[in-house]
Structures
1.
Amino acid sequence: MAGKNPEFELGGINHLALVCSDMRQTIDFYSGVLGMPLIKTIELPGGMGQHFFFDCGGGDCVAFFWFPDAPDGVPGISAPPGRPEQGDLLSAVGSMNHVAFTVPPERFEEYRRRLKAKGVTVSPILNHDDSPSGIAREMYDGVFVRSFYFQDPDGILLEFACWTREFTDADVSHTPRTAADRRTPTHA
């Protein structure tokens, strides 16, 4: 689906490391609700905390640190304040906005129903396209990915997504914005 890397032979994401408030609750959600096997646990030296790894498929992992002194996250700064259909996607520079897991297109709607049946609040299905709104009401050839969003017990924004078409050179057509294009946030 992507071009070849001429510099490094990368095989994907080894792991994405996040921070949780309650490792037991995190295991219950990621293994119990999402079915990801817990494959490695580490007790950090000197009482610094824990680091646990969950297999999210394709040789990739999502991992969590638990630190006894970690400050609480701040919605809208350390992560988006909610799911995309609730409005604001904003999070701070250097923050982790969301984690998207690849799911098979033929099981996409089934997986949404299964999460709802498990009591997880999920967003409506979003058919992402190149229209001015970025979202199509119905599937058509211009939709490049379908997704829906939900949150883990710590409010981390998660997404199940499936690509719907191959990309071409025409899919890379926007001029990158720079730091000079940013608007400085105002504080009350």
2.
Amino acid sequence: MRAFDLTPLYRATVGFDQVADLMDRALANDVGQNSYPPYNIEKTDDDAWRISIAVAGFSDDDLAIEVKDRSLQVTGRKAADETERNYLHRGIATRAFERRFHLADHVRVTGAAHENGMLHIDLAREVPEALKPRRIEITSAGKTDANLVEAKSVN
């Protein structure tokens, strides 16, 4: 049960809905979060990350990666095995799973690779030129343009 009500935050702010949504989602998802399959998130550069998910027993055809509304969803569905097996110990879980990762603004998936039982998903932040900081030149008020022609009133 959550003890926080974020409704006053929605009323008192304009444009910070994403922050409130993020806090609300974090508080809601932490309860009973499934830990299968295990994953790592590593920072590979200033604006690049890699998510590595342990997917032993899954082939490329069993895995799906989808990005929708700034949410990365990784699902794994193992095809039914037709051969009858008698396990003495079964420690490799190949049950179906779904992992979701919320992506920040301007973060996009640049690639994915499946090797040695690990699914690697590469992410990069690509900020548009219009949103990047830019330096504004400051001119003094005393300088005038040499090509400026004075306008005179005709009346």
3.
Amino acid sequence: MPELLNVKPTRMELLNLKRRITLATKGHELLKDKQDALVMEFFTVYDEALRLREELSKEMEAAFEALLNAQLEVGTLRLKEAALSVKPNREIEIKQRNVMGVSVPLIEAESFRRNVQERGYSFVSTGPSVDLVAEKFEEVLDLAVRLAEVEETLKRLAKEIETTKRRVNALEYIIIPRMEATVKFIKQRLDEIERENFFRLKRVKALIEARSQGS
């Protein structure tokens, strides 16, 4: 039997508890709906994360293959010189957006992809292989930023799902059963009091009648 609430067995408390049970039941339904919606959103984002991870893995493989080819063509030293000559890229701004009541990151950044002139390294000491390396790693950066946003969203959704689940379970298995058990106890106690009062009145009536007959 669930633990009872520490309240007085009065009709006022009984009415109050019934109202609380109604509110808690509605709250449980709303939280359950929220939990279901969060789970659906989680798996939608999860599918996106899997797609991006797979795409990023392929792009990284292609980028390192291009890097190896460039090293063979222009040499490691010239490749390092070209890398050090690259101009800083655009800034990344991290904002927040709301998904099912959960604050998740929104990364705003222009594409990392640039043309040859924007990169800043010398055309003379490099070649098409270096351009290809730059292009491939710019694609990798674009995907990495997108994946970072999606994976952080997944973490926050998972945390919110767990929090909502705990609240749903607390209402379903602890709070509502305790209130219902307390309502049952109060009803039983009020019935007992009513029966006791009935028999007390009956005894008083019998005593009054007995005295009136004896006088």
